[in-house]
Q: What sequence folds into this?
């Protein structure tokens, strides 16, 4: 490994210049006017995969943006990694809040600022450079690797499930590696072993056929905005516990050792509260903040709309009201089952004075792997070698549906090894990646292939 | 009176043509681009008041739109009527829902369709024509009359209180007459003897300094949309009774004879429910629909806004939430006292997890006069002569703040004699006035001056 490390340290500056080229392509999948840029980015990605020495590189068309594929399968008898990432990026609005142009990568204070720096081009590129170092210096990799990079991650990965289903044989592997997440905190590398799932629904209530004058009719009919408030208020008790019958039935309790691990993490509640600008933290009684966010399910109102919402006063009795509601799920809650329990409960508590329309929108399964999975342990050793520090094992409150996809369709565990930071601004102006973490990530990735090879 | 009635009957068609001219002026006080039209309408109104024979006609400037003033004070020893109305109109949006252009008055099935037909130009014009008939045929009126027509009624009458206060001497009178309301139902002329008051407030809650990702942060902080729902849900019990402490303390109970009168009115709950398109009527336990709307206070949510309200799903944990809330008041509730009770209760029930901003917007006192007030009785006789039928005495759920103004500042009772209909679409597309009611109203108005003269 020494000559590989030398190679990486020697080419550090070149990596940055190449990464800048990658970040210059505005591959915004959400905006039709950037469709050409998205394809150009796929092509650039494929060319780079060829340059670093991967084989079978090609664009695989989908009904949406192409998947970029490449592999190196010369390590007979060694495990096979399926590496997943994405080459599309988020939109940049509000662009006036960027301190440097989003598609002209700029280095300030050891961080590279550009859309896609952390999410996910920078982290994909880190693996490219680790693979390159292995192949240029030794002509081989210690493991087999298959890379799939999609161009629709930022718009919901609509075609990915079908792609994975229809390429099961080609994608056969032993473990999935994904680098598309932040580490626990600056200086605290981490491996994420659990993600929450999601159920998203919309409630529409109608009280009357049209808006009414609140003077002429107020008092005679139910007000759908008030009914909505009453319905939502019945979803949680004062201790923050969700009241949907059966909601907690399948929740896997936190193990004592997990709780102990969480407690050891350097998490400062006061700093966290201040950064969020909250007068006071609030969550389910009996759990710490990290436990609430990582390992407990939630019920959140994502949107509310009824009646007059402009400046001033309008004495309207609204005809309709609307709430968008989502629940984050933890193992072993099932999104379909929870959506059904929620719908049943809403139908039960909504009074006969209004008409209810209940819409299930999307959902995703929660995911968790074991600390002691050999690949997770291998990743832990690789990170320690790249960052000089053993990683912490954390869970994440968000959802990465693709992880569940790989679990369900291919039966594969995933190693989530990210080098972003919690303040990386992934979906906001001034997205950035710490160059020290990038460099450590290239080294850790180079070790990761080695460590995974040694699991067999 | 016979020659006056002959005059009115003879000139019926001319009245409609003149009214069409009045309705052609788009005097929309809410829209700055119509400021010129509003002034043109004030001038047209003044010219018409001169044509019908009123004296001292002039525009009296205010910080906003002018008040049009005119009088006839030649009935020495007779009572003086202060007639109030307004020459401004509501906006016309959504204009595509009008079946004929809002400012080209069009007659269909005996009704004249135009913005302002009922609210309030048509009803003001009805009095103009009654005055004209008296003055043209007899050279005099049986009473003294002072007319003030404002141009800001549809935008909250911001300058009217000050105008009345600063012109108390000039406005001295015995009774106020206002024709700016609908009758109880088609074929059922009515006199309104009670109005509800109003308190309008806005509640803004802030949970965090910016919107958060519901995955990464859901469970750790209070959701201001959920807190808002919980706060609003605490404002009413399941029986529709308002839970603000002290809210009902000053409510004047319905008298048995009022309840008996209401019961006699031809009110069909099923038809009412179907016309509103409500699955089921709902209101305070222990009261009929008319009692709830006319004689009981309400608490209504007029608007709700939080988070993401567009198409689809966005997993946002909103930073802020907003509710517009208003209460209709009945005698002897005081708007300032009720606003204070409400604010105190909101401050008490809002948890410390969010920041509260409470804004009092506007308010108005409830109003009620007695059946047996001699002017009310005079109006009853006049209506019976104009419509061939004794009027019913009803209350109204809405508010006409100016009625309370005249009561408080000038110490005057008001006679509310309106010839609109409940389906007149006063603030909606296709506003209309029944021409039979207009004609009956001209005759009733002509008699009204006579009947009021005879009270002395």
A:
């Amino acid at each position: 490994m020494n000559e590989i490390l030398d190679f990486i340290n020697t080419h550090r500056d070149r990596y940055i210049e190449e990464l800048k080229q990658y970040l210059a392509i505005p591959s915004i999948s959400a905006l039709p006017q950037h469709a050409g840029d998205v394809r150009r980015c796929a092509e650039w990605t494929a060319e780079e995969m060829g340059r670093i020495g991967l084989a079978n590189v090609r664009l695989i068309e989908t009904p949406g943006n192409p998947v970029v594929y490449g592999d190196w399968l010369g390590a007979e008898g060694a495990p096979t990694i399926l590496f997943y990432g994405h080459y599309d990026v988020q939109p940049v609005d509000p662009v006036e809040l960027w301190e440097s142009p989003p598609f002209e990568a700029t280095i300030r204070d050891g961080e590279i600022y550009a859309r896609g720096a952390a999410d996910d081009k920078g982290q994909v590129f880190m693996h490219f450079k680790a693979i390159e170092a292995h192949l240029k210096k030794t002509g081989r990799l210690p493991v087999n690797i298959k890379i799939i990079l999609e161009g629709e991650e930022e718009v919901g990965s609509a075609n990915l499930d079908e792609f994975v289903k229809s390429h099961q044989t080609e994608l056969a592997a032993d473990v999935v590696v994904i680098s598309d997440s932040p580490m626990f905190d600056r200086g605290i590398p981490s491996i994420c072993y659990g993600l929450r799932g999601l159920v998203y629904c919309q409630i529409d209530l109608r009280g009357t056929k049209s808006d009414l004058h609140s003077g002429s009719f107020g008092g005679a009919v139910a007000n759908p905005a008030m009914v909505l408030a009453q319905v939502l208020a019945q979803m949680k008790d004062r201790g923050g516990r969700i009241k949907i019958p059966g909601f907690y039935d399948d929740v896997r309790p936190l193990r004592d050792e997990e709780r102990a691990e969480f407690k050891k993490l350097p998490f400062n509640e006061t700093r966290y509260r201040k950064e969020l600008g909250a007068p006071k933290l609030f969550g389910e009684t009996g759990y710490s903040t990290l436990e609430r966010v990582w390992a407990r399910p939630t019920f959140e109102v994502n949107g509310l709309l009824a009646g007059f919402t402009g400046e001033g006063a309008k004495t309207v009795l609204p005809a309709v009201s609307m709430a968008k509601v989502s629940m984050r799920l933890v193992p072993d809650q099932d999104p379909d089952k929870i959506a059904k329990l929620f719908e049943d409960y809403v139908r039960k508590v909504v009074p006969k004075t209004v008409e209810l329309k209940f819409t299930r929108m999307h959902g995703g399964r929660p995911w968790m792997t074991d600390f002691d999975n050999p690949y997770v342990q291998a990743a832990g050793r690789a990170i320690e070698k790249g960052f000089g520090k053993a990683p912490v094992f954390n869970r994440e409150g968000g959802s990465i549906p693709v992880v569940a996809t790989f679990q369900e369709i291919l039966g594969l565990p995933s190693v989530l090894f990210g080098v972003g930071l919690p303040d990386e601004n992934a979906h906001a102006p001034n997205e950035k990646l710490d160059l020290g973490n990038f460099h450590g990530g290239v080294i850790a990735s180079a070790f990761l292939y080695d460590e995974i090879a040694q699991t067999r």
Remarks:
- The longest helix of chain B spans residues 435-453.
